[in-house]
Design a protein that fits this description.
single chain; binds 2-acetamido-2-deoxy-beta-D-glucopyranose; C-type lectin domain-containing protein; four-stranded antiparallel β-sheet; alpha+beta; C-type_lectin-like; globular
Amino acid sequence: MKTPYLVIGLAACLSLLAESAQTRPSGSNQTLEQRLVKLERRVMKQQRRLLRTSRLAAQLSKKLASVDAALGLFSDEKPCPDGTPGFFHAPDFSSCYHLEQSLVLTNWTDALKLCKILSPTSHLVSIETKDEQQFLRAKWFNGIGGVATYARFWTSGQMVSGQWTWQATGKKMAYENWIPLVTHDDERYDCAAVYSNEAYAWGGAACWAPHMVTCEINL
Ligand SMILES: *[C@@H]1O[C@H](CO)[C@@H](O)[C@H](O)[C@H]1NC(C)=O
Ligand SMILES: *[C@@H]1O[C@H](CO)[C@@H](O)[C@H](O)[C@H]1NC(C)=O
């Protein structure tokens, strides 16, 4: 059930690439600023398109998940008690999770929006204990095919007035799992992401960077 979804994501990326390849500078007497403004507009337009694509992907994901549920696929993963399709239940953590499988990567704010589209009570994931970290690590590892792929996943961790905070709960981080020996208090990198190539430890990332999305519903 996940394959068509990947294909859609891939097709969207390819069409964007094809479009940017066709881009040619127009009007040789334009000032540099004019060109930059145009380029910026184009980038913003593509970002909006990406968001629309990810909305579409989210809707599709929902539909596919209900088909999966109807067919009894992924039966090792219990559905979420509130019935939200695409989320699986993890009773140990009183949570439901959704690992976004599409190739559409989003910045931190769009990732938040994507979770809300999937379910109004859903947020970006907050990793509050070592057990939860271990549990999710296995899910992420399997989610990217169990290979040492370079992937980053957004969490709800955000630096607020110099304090790392879980946006989903408003609480300061208690359990932390930062990449050793790498600074994580640089205000330019104030959204927390999980790094697959760093044993799934966390790093401060630029909030505008495109990463994968993991949503959580606290039950
Ligand atoms: C740029 O070129 C167009 C025609 O190609 C001309 O109408 C316009 O006045 C030019 N602008 C400047 C600032 O030279
Ligand atoms: C994320 O992208 C959207 C456009 O899709 C943009 O409006 C927003 O400002 C961006 N957020 C960040 C933190 O870069």
